[in-house]
Every structure is written in structure tokens, then in C-alpha cells.
Amino acid sequence: MAALMAAVVFFVSYLGTRLLVGILARRAILDHPNHRSSHDVPTPHGGGIAVLGALLPAWLLTEQFMPGTPDGLLVVVGGAIFLAVVSWIDDVRGLGPVVRLLAQAAMVAAVLFLAPFTAPVFGGWLPPTADLVVAALLWIWFINLFNFMDGIDGIAGVQTAGIGMGVFVTAKVGKLDAGWLALGLSAAAASVGFLRWNWHPAKIFLGDVGSIPLGFLLGWLLLGLAAAGYPAPAIILPAYFLADATITLVRRLLRGEKIWEAHREHFYQLAVQSGLRHDQVSGIIAVANIFLIALAMVAMRGLPWPAVSGAAAAVALLLFLLAKGGPTE
């Protein structure tokens, strides 16, 4: 059932994104390059509409027909739709950072209040209120870092596929209910369908309408894994995005820069500036994600600390290689 659903999601995302390329171009909904951009020509943005149009109905069907679907899925889907609407307005007309942050915080709070996780996210190490607050803050940060990291062709799709497949593999090894398998596999399928048109040179970008809701959905999946008793995979699977975005943010804060403004200082951006192509950088990150998925499996086999340590070492090496970069021709 999960495999069939994923196949349908892939084709809907693939065909829907192809249609959007023409529609958005005709309506001149384009991302125009500037001095902070990593692309050179005006490119349609808003491909997240097709990704969510394929993924969210599949998640609703999962809630209805798959056993053991995580609690609160309907609320989560509703929150993703709300954030997609707000983010689309931001894509087309522009909204201030405070409005965007308030919308994200409201949806995170709504999910945690209306459909809380059935167990503590941090395994009882924190008092219940602190567990809830820290989980909310981490979730909001993940939404924003996912948006920050969507800066070159293919990278957000590669990361979504990596986390989705990682959730699927974790659920399979951990013998979680079928709902978990479907949620992870369908997220990966939606992103791969989009990647066909977002691979370098991209014909379309996700836009905030895609990156913000995807960060919201993937953040919920990862926190849900931790609450289900599997914190190591929840840390390992997004490790590269977490490290790149957090280190870059801290460096900019220490320099007194406005962290909400666009820039070109992420490690993956440094790699592109050094001469690597978008597809090369995204491909390197895809290979790293495969290794991280393997480490998540190691964690599920009863070796969480060696797996997390291995992931930290692998991500450190990846960041070093991206910062070093270098032309290939």
C-alpha cells in the first residue's frame, strides 16, 4: 500500500511540477537573480504547490486507511496548508519576517496543543513543560533552516528525499506501524518527482510556498520519531542541514549581521562560489544523506551513540569539503 501510494505521489508531483513551470512563467511569477542569488536567469518559483498537492492528499489517505498513523496528522496537514497560503502571499507580494515567524509559531503551537505527541520528545530528560517548549523552538528553527538551505538547484529536494527515506527505513527496521512507512516514503516520492524539474539547471524553484510547509512537515516527522523512542535517527537524518544552517547563523550573529536577510555564506553556497556546479554540490549531499540513512539503521540496531558520533564526523567532513570546494574543470 505504501509503495503504491508513493508511486502515485511521484507521478502527481512530476506532472504537476511540469504544468506549473509553464503556468508560473506565463504569469511572470519569477525569481529574478540578484547579487545574493545562486542562479543567473529569472526562474519560476512556486513549485511547492505541486509537491504539496501530491503529498498532502496522500497523508490524509494515510490517516484514513493506514494502521498506526501518528496522532494529530489532520491538524498537521491543516497547519501545512495554512503555512502554504501565508508563504505563497510572501512569494508573490512579500511579508515581513515577524509575520512569517508568527504564522509558523502559531501552527507549531496549534499542533502541540491540539494533537500533542503521545510521549516526551526528549525521553523524560526534561520536565513536561520544558519538553514542550524546547520541542516547539526546535521545530520553528527547523522550519526556518529548511527555508534558508533552499538556495541552490536540487538541495531541498535531495534533503526531503533523504529524510523521507530515512523515516521509512527507521520505521521498517524499528517495526513501526504502516502509517510511518507511508508518510516517509510519500515525502521522498513527492520530492523526487519535483527534482526532475529542479535539478541543475533548474526550470522551477520550490519557493517559500514549498520550503516552509515542507520544513513544518519534516520537522513534525522527526520530532515524532524522537517521541516514539528513536531520538538518534531524528538527530542523524537532518544532521547536515542542522549543522550548516546553525553554524552559519551563529557566525552571522557574532558579526552582528541581520540574520533574516538573504546571504551567500552557507557551506553549500561557498562550494558553488568556489567553482562546483549546483548538481555536483547537491549530488555530494545526496551521497552524504545515504550514509546518514545507513547510520540511522545502525542506531536502530542498538548502537545509537556510535551512530550519532559517526554522523557528527561525517557531517564535519562534509562541511570541510564544501568550504574547501574548488573548480572541477
Properties at a glance:
13 helices; globular; 329 residues; two-stranded antiparallel ribbon; single chain; mainly alpha
- How much of the sequence lies in strands comes to under 5%
Global Rg: 19 Å
Number of strands: 2
Order of helices and strands: HEEHHHHHHHHHHHH
Contiguous runs where pLDDT drops below 50 for at least 5 residues: none
Q: Please give the count of helices.
A: 13
Task: Compute the average pLDDT.
Answer: 94
In terms of quaternary structure, what is this?
single chain
Taking the alpha carbons of the first and last residues, their distance comes to 46 Å
Spatial order of the strands forming the largest sheet: 1-2
Q: For the report, how would you describe the main beta sheet?
A: 2 strands, antiparallel
Explain the overall architecture.
Helix content is 71%, strand content 1%. By secondary structure, the protein is mainly α. Helix 3 packs antiparallel against helix 8 (208-227) and helix 11 runs parallel beside helix 13. The chain has a domain at 2-231. A two-stranded antiparallel sheet has the order 1-2. The model has no long low-confidence stretch (mean pLDDT 94). It is globular and about 45 Å long. It has 13 helices and two strands; from the N terminus they run H-E-E-H-H-H-H-H-H-H-H-H-H-H-H.
